[in-house]
Amino acid sequence: MLKVENLNVYYGGIHALKGISFDVSKGKIITLIGANGAGKSTTLRTICSLVRAKEGKIIFKDKDITNISTDQIVKMGAVLIPEGRRIFPNLTVQENLDLGAFVREDKEEIIKDQEWVCKLFPRLKERLWQKGATLSGGEQQMLAVARGLMSRPKLLMLDEPSLGLAPLLVKEIFEIIQRIHQEGITILLIEQNAFAALKIADYAYVLETGRIVLQGTGEELLRNEEVRKAYLGE
What we know:
Blueprint: E1 2-11, E2 14-24, E3 29-33, H1 40-47, E4 55-60, E5 63-64, H2 70-76, E6 78-81, H3 93-100, H4 107-120, H5 122-125, H6 137-149, E7 155-159, H7 167-182, E8 186-191, H8 194-200, E9 203-208, E10 211-216, H9 218-223, H10 225-231
């Protein structure tokens, strides 16, 4: 579904991504793990054209999307849930959800999708007319994911969805990610919580200072001694 080839990205004089290549197969959960500054968020932002690549190609559904606009990428079905939630705090939950569907015109299907996301996130259904700023951190993260789902993605990219959440909410967010995946949506997940990410991942890549240094199934990397020492606190 998604193929990244020899991606090189610079921020001024900093070489942030150094020729990374990886695949995201349709119907799978793929995760990128690594320390802060490894290039994980830059990778997702480049896929979405929020950052421009100096070299390399990004192929989505057999089309080169390296230089097309972010809104066109969303229309094609690749959607990013950014780090830090980035909801619209002065808008209601309902208005945030409506904005998630801004590229769509199929009104009846939009209504059905809102019913679906309200089943996924029952707490949001109770707060549709509440402003985003008044939600708890966990509820804001749920709203960010729900808003992304309203665009009906084929590929959902999640950047640190568990960041700053209490352990019980982290568990709930990962359960929801698996439920979204069961609906047939392909997932590309970035996480500092390497253990939780690898447990649900079909395949995983380890980034270090802009390079992919290890890859394998989630199970393989959970058993890998280097990964256990560096990312699992062993």
